């Protein structure tokens, strides 16, 4: 893990009663805010695919 | 005629309290500290070891996590040569105070008359030699991890500091709570610790110190996290019928709260602006005629400062979302304030005795034995422990 990283609870648009504890990646940690639209990116590690999230630039208006 | 039925926990009184030496890296074994606390509590109650017929602890022995768990009840039973009519310990339950709740119910059910309860930690020594991994909570693991940690560890969310930080961020975002407000919990603890000879950190802490401290998991800084300690606390709960045999002024259990209605996890909890303390607190007030405004001093869990804010709201000392404003400036929660809070210094300054330092302090205050930090005329106290999906609370009266 880098020295600074973002841990977040992400609510799924497709299933709002499920949350994932995850990391917000591919952005400046200071730019992350509560309510920020994000989209999944999978990080492959052997036979595991970790769901991480990056800013959803299309939804961010 | 309708008969008023008292909750069974009301049969139990705190008859004795004891505490071992508490400090950083004492270099003494957990069983040694435990026996110091237990023998002192038994003596304080005016009882003989032969009269103790029950034992309880939280969480009981945990393999690989001995510095966190302390010794199991069989080890303590054997060391003290106790003949037990009831015994129990376990990590699953309404938080750290589960052992107290269970013991009070065993007494209410007539299974035991004098129950010894203890909580022991040697986390300071363990972390001194082995880092965070020394207490068995390491981020590294050779094999695949199971249970709830498999959903958190891969993302660098190693500990409650990380999980709770997200709750704190949401509270800041939703209600406008500030670091200066949260910091009052740490500053208040330190002011009170100055009056507690057994507290670990007693030097003054300023808001500037707090705001400049190393960030651990935003917005929680170093002083928002409690101090790993070595130490043990023991209490004796006794049946109210034995009160004439006892030495100390009895302190009564008025009610307990143990409920958890949401999904039992940090990430799937129904409302992230509150925690399980919401349900435990609501149940507590449903079992008593006393109200929050009757409480003379509150000892609210501060494993992290933010948990104290969560308990203040859940217990109705202020409205939901208002805890930041409630503690702002610090006067209201000081020893001379409207709600003297964490008068021993709490875990943030006195040391992480995992809920039992708070319980010890509540009993001490109601006896009028808190010395320099005594809240004058305290008759009702509350001790609450837990965070996230575990919570338990006990209301005590003189």
Average pLDDT level of chain A: 92
Number of DSSP helical runs of chain A: 0
Structural class of chain A: mainly beta
Strand order of the largest sheet of chain B: 3-2-4-7-1-8-11-10-9
Largest sheet entry of chain B: 9 strands, mixed
Note the overall shape of chain A.
globular
- Most extensive interface: pair and counts? A-B, 15 and 18 residues
Describe the 3D structure.
The complex is a heterodimer of chains A (61) and B (398). By secondary structure, chain A is an all-beta fold. Chain A has one domain (6-55). Chain A has strands at residues 6-12, 15-24, 38-45, 48-55. In chain A, the strands form 2 sheets. In chain A, strands 1-2 form a two-stranded antiparallel sheet. Chain A is globular, with a radius of gyration of 12 Å. Chain B is an alpha/beta fold and 398 residues long. Chain B has one domain (8-132, 157-397): Thiolase/Chalcone synthase (Peroxisomal Thiolase, Chain A, domain 1, 3-Layer(aba) Sandwich). In chain B, the strands form 2 sheets. Chain B has a 9-stranded mixed beta sheet. A two-stranded antiparallel ribbon of chain B has the order 5-6. In chain B, α9 runs parallel beside α10 (305-314). The longest helix of chain B is centred in the first third of the chain and has 16 residues, at 30-45. Classes of the chains: A mainly beta (61), B alpha/beta (398). The A-B interface holds A 1, 5, 7-9, 18-23, 34, 48, 50, 52 and B 151-152, 154-157, 162-163, 165-166, 169-170, 173, 217, 266-268, 272.
């Amino acid at each position: 893990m880098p020295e600074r990283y973002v841990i977040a609870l992400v609510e799924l648009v497709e299933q709002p009663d499920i949350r994932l504890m995850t990391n917000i990646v591919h952005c400046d940690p200071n730019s992350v805010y509560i309510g920020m639209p994000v989209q999944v990116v999978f990080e492959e590690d052997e036979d595991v695919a970790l769901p991480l999230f990056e800013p959803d630039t299309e939804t961010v208006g | 005629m309708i008969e008023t039925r008292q909750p069974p926990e009301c049969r139990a009184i705190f008859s004795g309290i004891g505490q071992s030496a508490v400090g950083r890296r004492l270099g003494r074994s957990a069983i040694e500290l435990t026996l110091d606390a237990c023998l002192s509590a038994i003596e304080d109650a005016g009882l003989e070891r032969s009269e103790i017929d029950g034992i309880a602890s939280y969480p009981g022995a945990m393999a690989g996590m001995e510095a966190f768990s302390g010794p199991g009840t069989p080890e303590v039973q054997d060391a003290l040569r106790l003949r037990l009519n009831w015994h129990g310990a376990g990590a699953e339950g309404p938080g750290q105070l589960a052992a107290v709740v269970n013991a009070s119910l065993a007494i209410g059910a007539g299974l035991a008359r004098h129950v010894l309860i203890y909580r022991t930690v040697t986390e300071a020594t363990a972390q001194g030699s082995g880092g965070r991994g020394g207490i068995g909570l390491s981020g590294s693991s050779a094999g695949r991890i199971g249970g709830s940690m498999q959903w958190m560890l891969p993302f660098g969310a190693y500990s409650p500091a990380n999980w709770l930080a997200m709750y704190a961020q949401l509270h800041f975002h939703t209600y406008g709570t500030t670091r200066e407000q949260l910091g009052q919990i740490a500053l208040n603890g330190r002011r009170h610790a100055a009056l507690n000879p057994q507290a670990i950190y007693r030097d003054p802490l300023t808001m500037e110190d707090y705001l400049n401290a190393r960030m651990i998991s935003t917005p929680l800084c170093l002083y928002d996290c409690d101090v790993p300690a070595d130490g043990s606390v023991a209490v004796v709960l006794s049946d109210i019928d034995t009160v004439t045999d006892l030495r100390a002024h009895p302190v009564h259990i008025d009610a307990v709260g143990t409920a958890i209605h949401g999904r039992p996890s940090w990430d799937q909890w129904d409302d992230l602006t509150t925690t399980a303390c919401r349900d435990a607190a609501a149940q507590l007030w449903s079992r008593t005629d006393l109200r929050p405004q009757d409480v003379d001093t509150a000892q609210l869990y501060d494993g992290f400062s933010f948990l104290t804010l969560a308990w203040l709201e859940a217990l109705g000392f202020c409205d939901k979302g208002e805890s930041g404003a409630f503690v702002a400036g610090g006067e209201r929660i000081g020893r001379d304030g409207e709600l003297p809070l964490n008068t021993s210094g709490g875990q943030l300054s006195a040391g992480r005795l995992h809920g039992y330092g708070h319980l010890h302090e509540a009993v001490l205050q109601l006896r009028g034995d808190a010395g320099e930090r005594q809240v004058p005329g305290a008759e009702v106290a509350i001790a609450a422990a837990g965070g996230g999906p575990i919570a338990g609370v006990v209301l005590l009266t003189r």
